[in-house]
Every structure is written in structure tokens, then in C-alpha cells.
Amino acid sequence: MDRFLAIDAFVRVAESQSFAEAARQMRVSRSVVTARIQQLEEFVGAPLFHRNTRSVRLSELGQAFLRDCSELVGRTNEVVDQMREVGTSPVGRLRVHALPGFVLGHLARLLQEFQARYPQIVLDLIVSDAVIDPVKEGFDCALQIFPPGSEELIARKLFPVRRVFCASPEYIQRFGAPRHPSDLAGHRIGWYSGYPTRERLVFHGQNEQVSLELKPVLLSNSVHLLREYALEHAGIVCVPTLVASESVLSGELLLVLPEYLLSSFWLSVFYPTTVRSSLKLKLFLEVLTASFSGVPPWDEALISRGLLADGVIE
Fold it and tell me: Are 57 and 255 within 8 A, CB to CB?
């Protein structure tokens, strides 16, 4: 029995709660993972999991065993990565989960820069709006707005995600521009369905705060679809500036109620406290934070033209 491979399999099964997912991460068959776990259980003399056709749960011994094993796997891979770095460039696979709103139009340049520096690192980038736990899903990190419910993660803020209302000039010419947040009740609204406050929103004006329960005619988990909806002159949409900025700067979309600030979120990178690919992740985070910390470039362009207030409300 290769003890390290068996312990690595144990950690992956425990974190993902799935033999199949652990096999996929390790790029081996499920039967190989099952055999490694059985060998480890025989070695320690007790079951590490309670499993049936529907679930995989750690046994009492498995729970006591997991933290030390996670640290062992993480430290071992970190040492191997450092040894590789001494003689050559880092090698291996880095699994990243990211929001489509951020990836599309903004991340390709960074990926090119990262791979130019570290050509032997393979990036496995999954794009989805889902809020995931990178520990359970087997990712090295996740770039998302809303935190997963896990205590085993480190969160590093990258930049604020400001939101704006906007519509096409044709829509505004036909239906008029709202002068007050309450005027939105008379318009067709497109809204992102993933906000934790649902359709409730607070508008922060210079002399007032207005709380509204919006009645959208279109709900979508795609902010890019909402932008396209606005470009088709179909209504007023609320989208992040990272999606709207280019269209606003070109004049294809106009800001609606720009004198009212909306609450912002933060795009953060979430990663496990014990990371198997710590060196590769560290290098990726260095490139990421160098490009996107502070005020992001799409907001700087809007602020410099006086289209967006230089302030963040959390």
C-alpha cells in the first residue's frame, strides 16, 4: 500500500463526500479510490466512513483522522511544489471556479499572463454562477461574491462589485427616464435572481434613502443576458458595472438614476485553509491581486468621466 496515495484518497473522499468525485479529481477509476480506502481502513483496523448507496459519512475515527491527514497532504504537496520550483517552473493542475460575470471580458488577459510566466501549470477553469464550497467540490479556489457556508476557508477580497440601473437610449426616448426610484414601478425591470435580498433594494441618495420592493418582468441568473435584454430596448436592468461599463462608455446604454448609489458586493477568492496546490495557488493569487485589487479598471473609466460616484456602500 502506498500510504500517501491512500491518505490523499481518504482526504478527497471526506471533503467531497463522494468516491466518484474523489476519483475524478485524482484522475483514476472509482475502484482504485475504493481499494485505497479499504487498504487504509485495514491498516488502521477500523472503518473511516459509513457509506451506503446514497451517502458517504465519516466515522468517528475518520473525523478524528481527517484534520491531521489534510495537513499532511497539504504540506507534502507544498514541499514537492517547492522542490520543483528550485529546479524548474511549477508543474501541475490548478482548479479554479469563477463567476461568468467576471470571467467573460475580463479574465482572459490575466490567464494569458499567468501561463506566459508558468507554462507548465494547467488551468482547469469552471465557469458558473453557483455558490460552491471549494473544499467539497475539489477546487483550489473559487472566485465569487457570496461566501459558501464553510469554516474551512480563507477569503481574500479583490474588488467591489458596484451595481447600476441602465437602459438603451431608444428605451429612454420611448418610455422616459425615471426621476425617482419610485418611478421604476412604471417600467419593465430586468433583475438578477441570485441576490440574497431578492427583489428588495435600498437607494442611497444625497438627502434620502429609498427602500423598494421591485416587481421585475424578467428574472435571470445571467447578468450578461440582462445586459443583452437592455440592449434590445426591452427594459431597465440592474447589473454590475463590470458587465455594463463597456456599453455605457460606448453610449449603447445610459445610466438610470445615477445620483442614487446602490449597495455593492465584493468579489473575493475563497480557498481552503489547507491547500494541496499551495505554491500554484500562491502564484495565481499574486497575478490576480496585482491586476484587480482596489478600484477595478471598468469602474475607473466610469468614475473618470463623471458617470459613477467614487464611493462604495456595503
Answer: no
